[in-house]
């Protein structure tokens, strides 16, 4: 069975313990995979063995075989291969729900997208382009700008993360924007809200600013939330603005939203069949190289989707040099060598002493015996 696995920022957050109620270790990561059905449970309808499908399990997508409830499994169109299936399903479903179910994107609207170079960011831009006259402002690190331009990414105004991008947006559109899609949290929430026009909508769908180091940091999480201003319902009422939040994982697995998500997936597949969207693939990695793939995502260096392909051979690893002896080993070795040296010297001294004793023995030992015999003979005579 040929399987492809989509790597998502959610995997990174779970690995670092930055999600609520993670499973007990050991467990298998992964929320998105594409392959073929090998077995069907009793009472399951609408699927057959051998069907090409994509699945969004709660975990275990990195396993060789994955048992997934039918409500989280979707048949792939004939045109959709496993590589594109793993690249398109979660990212474009999130983007579709954000734009068309929550933000109500329509002709002539303006849109600010954070992390526009990532998998979801690129999906949002492509889906936004299916609506006429939409203006897209995209924010990402400066290092990605050239690559996005080279890929002809349809972003109208590319802005640098960490810069005063609010002022840049105001120069183009003094009134602000209609929609802000924020996956960062922290101080970006305040900037985004301040940029909204009347009737504007701000939607938070992630908190990647929490992920800073290699492990969960209480201080990173606390700082992100402390930087967010409080917005009262009265203020929303007076300013004619909307605040929303979206979490696909919670909607599917804790809030029984599988039917809602299925409709969004079907709409995404239909747009793919019509040629209106095409997933942007950043890179494909062997499963054994997942650590490097996750590090690339952690460092925010990917443009588009990162895929794990178990059929690929892992990259050759550099030969590991022999490890030098530790200080304790060297100290122990030195002590043992010193002890051996002292014992050897002691043995040599003993040998020398024996030799000296032999030399100092009286030479009359034999003669005295002879004298004794001689005197004995004289006496006897």
Automatic annotation (TrEMBL):
What domain of life?
Eukaryota
Identify the residues that the record assigns to the Enoyl reductase (ER) domain, covering every copy.
2-308
Pfam families on file: ADH_N (PF08240), ADH_zinc_N_2 (PF13602)
Q: Which residues fall in a compositionally biased region of kind Basic and acidic residues?
A: 325-362, 372-381
An example molecular function term from Gene Ontology annotations: oxidoreductase activity
> Which UniProt keywords are listed?
Oxidoreductase
Does the keyword Oxidoreductase feature in the UniProt annotation?
yes
Region annotated Disordered, chain positions: 305-381
InterPro entries, per database record: ADH-like_N, ER, GroES-like_sf, NAD(P)-bd_dom_sf, SV-ATPase_mito-regulator
Protein name in the entry: Alcohol dehydrogenase GroES-like domain
State the organism's lineage. Eukaryota, Metazoa, Ecdysozoa, Arthropoda, Hexapoda
